[in-house]
Amino acid sequence: MNEINPKLVNSLALAYLGDSIYEIYVREYLIRKNIQKVNELQKEAVKYVSARGQYSYLKLMIDNSFLTEEELSIVNRARNHKSHAQPKNTDIITYKHSTGLEALIGYLYLENNKKRIDEIMNYIFTS
């Protein structure tokens, strides 16, 4: 595969990738909690994967100085990126912040920094 410099990747592309990585972490977490019913899995997943949920976890991490300056810069770059998408179920500010969290996960994934993704997701799951 081609080497990619994550610093040069469009922030919305990082969010696109980060969304899928984030979703896998959430699904695995819920399965490990021994939730067996698909409807219950979906109901629980929404708490984590909705824009509102992602925004609240991101805000918590920012308020508690959990993220590094570099990570905050990635979040802000994605949050401030011009987008023509209109969110369906939330306001634009919440949507842009959730995009920032997804971009951060995508960035860390491309950096092969699984350890930091694990730390962030553990922070989310234990908050």
Overview of the structural elements:
The chain has one domain: Ribonuclease III domain (Ribonuclease iii, N-terminal Endonuclease Domain, Chain A, Orthogonal Bundle), CATH 1.10.1520.10. The protein is built from 6 helices and no strands. Helix content is 70%, strand content 0%. Helix 1 (11-32) packs across helix 2, helix 1 (11-32) packs across helix 5 and helix 3 (51-63) crosses helix 5 (92-110). The protein has helices at 11-32, 38-49, 51-63, 69-79, 92-110, 114-125. The protein has 127 residues and is mainly α.
Offer a few descriptive terms.
127 residues, mainly alpha, Ribonuclease iii, N-terminal Endonuclease Domain, Chain A, 6 helices, 70% helix
Envelope shape: globular
Largest sheet entry: none
Class of secondary structure makeup: mainly alpha
Provide the gyration radius in Å: 14 Å
CATH C-level class is Mainly Alpha
Instruction: Identify the CATH homologous superfamily.
Output: Ribonuclease III domain
Residue windows where pLDDT falls under 50 for at least 5 positions = none
The helix fraction, in percent, is over 70%
SSE order, one letter for each helix or strand: HHHHHH
CATH fold name, please? Ribonuclease iii, N-terminal Endonuclease Domain, Chain A
- What fraction of the residues are assigned to beta strands by DSSP? under 5%
Give the total of domains.
1
* Distance, first to last CA: 36 Å
CATH arch. level architecture: Orthogonal Bundle
Mean pLDDT: 93
| Continuous helix count | 6
Count of DSSP strands: 0
